[in-house]
Specification:
single chain, 5-stranded mixed beta sheet, globular
Length: 105
C-alpha cells in the first residue's frame, strides 16, 4: 500500500530518507487521479524495498502542496537523495511511470 505522506512527515519520509521516492499528489474529486490510483498501488507492491511510493491528498495537506507549487493533479514527483529530480503532470500509463522510476534506481 502506498505510504501516506502529509505536511507533518514529508521532511522525514522524503527529504531525509535517502531513498528514491515517488509521490502522487491527488484528491478524491479528481477523475484522472482515480484513474492512476490503482497503478500507484500496484507500484507500491512492485517497488517494495526498492523505493518509497507515497500519496499526498492535496485537500488535506495544503502546506506541502503549496510549498511544492502543485497546481495540477494528478502530479507525480520523483526524488533521489532528497532532491526532486523529475515529475509527471497528468495521468500517465504504468509503463511510463515505471520507466521513470526505474531510471532513478
Amino acid at each position: 500500500m502506498a505510504q501516506e505522506i502529509n505536511d507533518g512527515n514529508y521532511e522525514e519520509l522524503v527529504i531525509k530518507s535517502g531513498k528514491v521516492v515517488m509521490i502522487d499528489f491527488w484528491a478524491e474529486w479528481c477523475g484522472p487521479c482515480r484513474m492512476i490510483a490503482p497503478i500507484v498501488e500496484e507500484m507500491s507492491k512492485d517497488f517494495d524495498g526498492k523505493a518509497i511510493i507515497g500519496k499526498v491528498n492535496v485537500d488535506d495537506n495544503p502546506g506541502i502542496t503549496a510549498k511544492l507549487k502543485i497546481r495540477n493533479i494528478p502530479t507525480l514527483l520523483f526524488y533521489k537523495n532528497g532532491e526532486e529530480v523529475d515529475k509527471i503532470v497528468g495521468a500517465a500509463s504504468k509503463s511510463a511511470i515505471t520507466d521513470k522510476l526505474n531510471s532513478l534506481l
